[in-house]
Amino acid sequence: MAQIQSLSIEHSQHEYGLWDRLCIFKDRLIADSRFQNRVAKIPFLKNIAKKRANQLFDVMAGFVYTQILLSCVRLNLFNLLKDGPLSLDEIKRFCSLDATPLKKLLDAAVSIHLLEMRSNKKYGLGTLGAPMVGNTALSSMIEHHTVLYDDLRDPLRLLSGDVEIKQMEKFWPYVSPDQQDQDALKDKERVKNYSDLMSASLPLVADQVVDAYDFSQHECLLDVGGGQGTFLKRVFLNTPQLKRKLFDLPGVANLAKDSFALTPDHQDIEVHGGDFFQDPLPSGADLITLIRVIFDHDDERVNILLKSIFEALPAGGKLLVAEPMADTPDHPAMGHAYFGFYLLAMGRGRPRTIQEISHLAVHAGFKGVEVLPCSMPINAQVLLISK
Known about the structure:
This protein is of the alpha/beta class. 52% of the residues lie in helices and 12% in strands. The protein is built from 18 helices and nine strands. The chain has helices at 2-12, 18-31, 33-39, 43-74, 77-80, 88-92, 99-111, 136-151, 155-160, 167-171, 179-184, 188-201, 203-212, 230-238, 250-260, 299-312, 332-346, 354-363; strands spanning 115-118, 122-125, 220-224, 243-248, 270-273, 287-291, 318-323, 368-372, 381-386. The strands form two sheets. It has a seven-stranded mixed β-sheet, with helices on both faces. The protein is globular and about 70 Å long.
C-alpha cells in the first residue's frame, strides 16, 4: 500500500511547475532531522534555524501565553504597576493569590514581556504590558476570549460543524436562526452582554476611523449597527456640528437611547430600531458608517445591506467601512487565522480582503472604493465608498 501511495505522489509531481518542485525539495530538506542537526552547527544558518524553532514554539505555546495575560488582567496587575515597580510582597497585598503561585505568574509574565524585573527584585511593566494600562477595550476582548476558547477545545469538531451548542453563538444572539432568539433581540436585557462588549472594545477601531477621515465635510452621519453610540460619541469630539443618527436592533437601540439621555451633548442623536436586512434605513444622511459590521455576515446578507445603504444615500453620498480585513499587510494571521476561527465559532460571517469588499460594493451599485491610510491596520482598515 505504501508503494502505491508513493507512486501516486511521484506521478503527481509532473503537474508541478519548477517553483513548486523547488519548494517541495526545500520542504523535504527542512523536514529531515539529519539536515536540521547539520544546520544547527553552521553559524549563519544556525541563527535562522533557531528563529524558526522559536516561532514554532510560540505558536504551540500560544494558548498558555494567553492564559498568563488573562490572569494578569483579572488581577489588574498592569494598572497596579502603572505608577512604578512593586515587590512580590507589595503586589500580594492587592491580589488574591498566595505568594508562591503569584511569583510563578509574575515570572511567567516577565518571560513574555508583559512585565519586567527591575532593581531590588521589583516587578515593573514590560514592553507588552505597558499598553494594557487603562486599556479597557483590549481587556474586555481578552476576558471575552474565554467564551471563544470553550468552542475551540476540539477545533476539528468545530471545523466539521459537529459542535451542536456553541458558546460564541449563544453570546451573539443575532446570528441564531431560532425565531425566539430573534424576537428576544427586542429586549435590551437580552442584548446587553454583547452590546456592552462591542461598546467597550470599539475604541480600538473608532480612533483609527476618526484619524483617517474628515467628517466635517458632511452634514449628517448615520451609523448602521451603531450599538450604544460609542462611535457617534467619538466623532462628536472632532465634529460637534455634525447631525447624527443611529440604527440598530430594537433592544440595542433602546440601550443607546438610555445612554444618550445621560449626556446633553448626545440627546439630539436620532435613534432608529429595526433589522437592516428587512427594514429600510432612515434617509437624510450624506454619510453612512459600518464599523465592524459586515464581517459578521455572509455575502448574501452583505449584499442586502449594501443595497439598502445605496438606496438610503443621496447622489454623491459616502459610505465608510471599517473593520479588520483579511490579507492585511504585515498582519496575515489576524484575518484568516484569528478572525477566520472566531467567526467560525460565532456561526456566521468571514474575514474579507479589500478586493472582496470592493467587489460587493460595486455589485450593490457604488462607483468607487478608496483605501484610507490608517496607523494601526491590525485594528481596522478603512474604506471610503462613493455612490
